[in-house]
Amino acid sequence: MNPGIDLQGSFVRALIDLGLPSGVAKTVWLPLPMLLMLVVATVSIFICVWLERKISAGAQQRIGPEYVGPIGALQAVADGVKLIFKADITPAKSDPWLFAIGPAIVVIPVFLSFLIVPFGQNLVITDLGIGIFLWIALSSIAPIGFLMAGYSSNNKYSLLGGLRAAAQSISYEIPLALSVLAVVLMTNGLSTIDIVNQQSGYGFLGWNIWRQPVGFVIFWISALAECERLPFDLPEAEEELVAGYQTEYTGMKFGLFYVGSYVNLMLSALIVSVLYLGGWSFPIPVETITGLLGVSESAPVVQLLSASLGIVMTLIKAYLLVFLTILLRWTVPRVRIDQLLDLGWKFLLPVSLVNLLLTAGLKLTFPFAFGG
């Protein structure tokens, strides 16, 4: 197995070789993951917004953005600049501190979650032993921000939107975590690197989507509900709540909620790619390809090409899921709030529990096929 790239270890060792003490080298490394995380997440926002507009335009036989930048690629940048210069209004009877902190609590955990996402073979900012559970823990913080934003606005529609967001998130957080537990059970580890390595070596036949088809469906439905994507955008239902917890927000505070939504969409697609679609692994094993070409797998050129194409594979899988999510938004009507909660508590939760118990039983019965 190619050991891949350890970003932190390589950078710290290089600084130590230059004469810096170990503690100083690690301190110098700390800001770099945050910068990489911000760059990757920000670029994903612009791509997702552009895809949203182009795909929705195609679904409705419209043109979509095409004037601001090449084929309208800079339209999201123009929207961001516009929001920055718009007036930032705080309602007179709101709680100003909670009103300002709410959007930050929604956005920051989503950005932090990129720290544990592997984009290539060991190409991850920090490979934590509890990586996937850290993501679940961070994603559970967002409802606090929604409640804070809705309550502090001193608006009944905002409060109802915040309560809906919290109820929706709690309802779908549990089946999502149970479906992740089934994958962890097969992997015998919580590291995102370990989860992808466990799926590699057999091509697409080794991906978890074939061993966990029910878990994949549960996870993706729950992830869409966590991202508040249609048909699960009940906290912002315009026909019922004006705009939900965002009603009283203007300017960049208003924009931060959409930043968090689109970053969370991209993050969820990457996590699905890691958990169920083999991450950076190819549909055909690298060993098979190099064997057919008569090339050594350990050749530096082959390793470099494999690592580069691995990053491309991760992004292709993630953006395919983003494409399907956006197409779903413009195809399926919105559900009612009672239907939403019934789906989470009465269907997805028991099915995810049964799936977890079946996975445990199959792991004991067929240890080779189920990661024993």
UniProtKB/TrEMBL annotation:
Keywords: Membrane, NAD, NADP, Plastoquinone, Quinone, Thylakoid, Translocase, Transmembrane, Transmembrane helix. This is NAD(P)H-quinone oxidoreductase subunit 1. It catalyses: a plastoquinone + NADPH + (n+1) H(+)(in) = a plastoquinol + NADP(+) + n H(+)(out); a plastoquinone + NADH + (n+1) H(+)(in) = a plastoquinol + NAD(+) + n H(+)(out). Belongs to the complex I subunit 1 family. PANTHER family: NADH DEHYDROGENASE SUBUNIT 1 (PTHR11432), NADH-UBIQUINONE OXIDOREDUCTASE CHAIN 1 (PTHR11432:SF3). InterPro entries: NADH_UbQ_OxRdtase_su1/FPO, NADH_UbQ_OxRdtase_su1_CS. One of its GO terms (molecular function) is NADH dehydrogenase activity. GO terms for biological process: aerobic respiration; photosynthesis, light reaction. Its main location: membrane. Coiled coil: none annotated. The chain crosses the membrane at residues 28-51, 96-116, 128-149, 262-282, 302-327, 347-370. NDH-1 shuttles electrons from an unknown electron donor, via FMN and iron-sulfur (Fe-S) centers, to quinones in the respiratory and/or the photosynthetic chain. The immediate electron acceptor for the enzyme in this species is believed to be plastoquinone. Couples the redox reaction to proton translocation, and thus conserves the redox energy in a proton gradient. It is a multi-pass membrane protein. GO terms for cellular component: plasma membrane-derived thylakoid membrane. It comes from Phormidesmis priestleyi Ana. Its EC number is 7.1.1.-. NDH-1 is composed of at least 11 different subunits. It is found in: Cell membrane; Cellular thylakoid membrane; Membrane. The keyword Zinc does not apply.
